[in-house]
Amino acid sequence: MIPSSTKGRGSRGQASNFPVVNFLLQILQEIWTIFKEASVFLLFGYLIGTLVALWIPAKAILKYLGAGKIKSVIWASLIGVPMPLCSCGVVPTALSLKKQGANKGATVSFLISTPEMDVDTIFFSYALMDPIMATVRPIAAFFTAIVAGIATNIWGDRKQDAPPPVPPPISHDHAHDIAENPISTPDPLPRSVEAPPKLETLLESPEIAPNHWAQKFYNTFLQLVDDTSYWIVFGVFLSGIIAALLPASVIEKYLSGGFTTMLLMLLIGIPIYTCATASTPIAATLVLKGLNPGAALVFLLAGPATNLGTIVVLLKFLGRRVVALYLGAIVVMSLLAGYIVNWIYWSSGLDPRVTFGASTSIIPERVKVLVAIGMICLFIYSMRRTQVPEEWIHLRDWLDSLTGIRLTSLRIKVGTLVTLVALYLYSGFIIVQPGEIGVKLRFGRMVAPDLPSGLHYHLPWPVEKIERVPKDPVRRVEIGFRTGRTSTDKQSLVQPLTVAGPSNPIPRAITSTAIWAEQQKVEEESFLLTGDENIVDLNLTVQYKVKDPVQYAYKINEPDRLVRSITLSGLREIVGQMGVDSVLTTERGNIEREVRRILQNALDVYGAGIDVLFVQLLSVDAPREVHTAFRDVASAQEDKIHIINRALTFAEESLNLARGDAANTIQSALAFKEEKILKAQGDAEAFTLRNQAYQVSPELNQFRLYIETMETVLPKVQKTLRPGPPYVKDVDLWMTRPLAQEP
Fold it and tell me: What integer pLDDT is reported at residue 505 of this predicted model?
């Protein structure tokens, strides 16, 4: 964003009360700012344009301008990029193309596209506007040229509308006259007749050798500067006058509409001559004042392509039908492009008053100043070596015939010098208003610290200056909000090119002119964090007055900002140590007293010369967006406690159950242990007894064990026992049928 000169009080400019001096100083300030911000991109555009003009020969594309109704139009629309021509030199060149074989459509396309697609014009648009306008402008001009050229080739070729060719009037001593091949704008009142220049000569200088590249680059670069120097100076001066004179509220009220505003810009641009480069700062200034970007684009497209002189010449050489198609295409395509660019800004949510001029913010301020000084020297050199544009001469002749006063160069210089000297001496007068004191400085040293109210004179800058310091009125600083800012004031905040502000950099006293004021929220100041980690929305005002004017004027910078910063620091410290309930209810008075104490102590330490009168809390609430949620927080805290208690109950219950289960498991294990031990002991004792019995009668025990084993192994088989041979000698064994099996 282009910086504003009204930020802060570091510059401490002179406080003149005379509107004429203020107005002239404001114009100069606007002119310097606009030119400084555009100078880097303008120089870059000149360099790129020079390289393009040297590397793309016109001879290579001249042959494509006569064949085909569409191909010739496209080539004619593109040929303007390497052409070092502005709006005033394109007409004779276009007629030269027509005479050398180009068809009418190609001639019309060349006439429309060349001024808008020039490289330096594109870079100038990028510097003072934004990338959207710098891109849409040449694209819209290209398609306008295509439509106009094709329409001319299809419907404009009527023999009865084309009179016999007559050489165009060439008597133009414009700033871009080139060596032996003058390029001039059409003169409705011809003075002399010469042959139009050939296109091949436009990019070549007969003074230099073809192989001398550096000299050729130098001459081509100067040719581009000569082509636009007068008109850029004119456009920047006119933009400065518009920025200083025309209130933003006027354009916002009457020229911020859609179709009506674009139609008005069309009616202004068609008959009046405007150079493509000179119209750029004018359009940028109007947009920053409130004009919609679509209307500005209509002015940029229609103005450079048409004017009454151009229309008269085209009627003579191309016929009424071609001129009608030419104007119709410009009107339709300009309005269409205006609607498209308005839709682009609307759909993307961009405000052109914010984006215009933002491209220059990446360039260091020192670089912009140095380049601007260099470009001023270059333009002075160009304007001294070239003649004034013939359009200006026509204006001088018209004023001469109207007033009878002949404006010669000497008279203009003497009159300008006398006016500047008178204004310089006049700037030493100053009025110190009631309730103010004046502080006179001579070369930065204070020589009179307490000038009373009334008229005073000091030696003009840079010898002396008087700075007015309001003493009696009470000033007010707002924390968390801003009031008293109307729509016009809001527009001034987003007008980077309109930098001239009040001549007195010290803030004015608060004056109330209405019973209501619009309030604007400042969230980064109003939202504070309490000690219990809650957010409160707080609005506060501080009222103070000046108790030492000298300290106030020369020991601090930006007093309102200083008071606001200290107040915010103290407020955050105090609120951060309190709970939200205390801040909302009982501690409001304590907060006001503590903030005032901290603020006054800090200002006294800094030597600010400020007496803090009141600190008042206007409102302390939960943030507006979370009123309902803030109430839910209290309920949530109660629910939290309830849930925690339930969880603790469940935890105790589960813990006791777990402890019981653990004890049961332990006791069961101990019982199982005792059971196993006792059983093992019983088995061991039984085994011991059996072993003892076995030792007494081994055979019997073996037999017993055998019988027990057989009982276990063969539980369902009928078994018969008989004694062994040693025990039985004569035994008869009778095998009989069991009783149950007898028949």
Answer: 40
Instruction: Give the DSSP per-residue string, 619-639.
Output: EEES-GGGHHHHHHHHHHHHH
pLDDT of residue 665: 92
Angle, in degrees to the nearest 10, between helices 71-78 and 104-116: 30
CA dist 102 to 18, 69, 347, 517, Å? 59, 10, 41, 65
**Beta strand pairing status for 436-442 and 535-546?**
unpaired
Nearest CA to 603 among 591, 612, 615? 612
Contact 306, 111 (CB under 8 A): no
pLDDT in tens, 555-614: 888 888 899 999 998 888 888 888 887 787 778 888 888 999 999 999 888 888 888 988
Record the tokens describing residue 298, joined without a space.
């209509």
Would you tell me how many other CB atoms lie within 10 Å of the CB of residue 261?
A: 21
User: Which sequence spans correspond to the domains of the chain?
Assistant: 33-390, 413-469, 473-621, 627-715
Could you list the beta-strand ranges (E) of 387-496: 429-432, 436-442, 445-451, 454-457, 464-470, 475-479, 481-483
- CA 617 vs CA 302, 539, 570: distances in Å: 57, 6, 14
The answer to whether the CB of 89 falls within 8 A of the CB of 174 is: yes
Q: End-to-end distance of the chain based on CA atoms, in angstroms?
A: 131
Selection from 165, 166, 185 nearest residue 175 by Cα: 185
- Other residues' Cβ atoms within 10 Å of the Cβ of residue 224: 23
| pLDDT higher at 203 or 141 | 141
Euclidean distance between CA atoms 504 and 55, whole angstroms: 53
* Fold (topology level) of 473-621: Tetrahydropterin Synthase; Chain A (3.30.479)
**DSSP result, 258-321:** SHHHHHHHHHHHTTS---HHHHHHHHHHHHHTT--HHHHHHHHHHHHH--HHHHHHHHHHT-HH
What is the secondary structure of 105-121 as a DSSP string? HHHHHHHHHHHHS-HHH
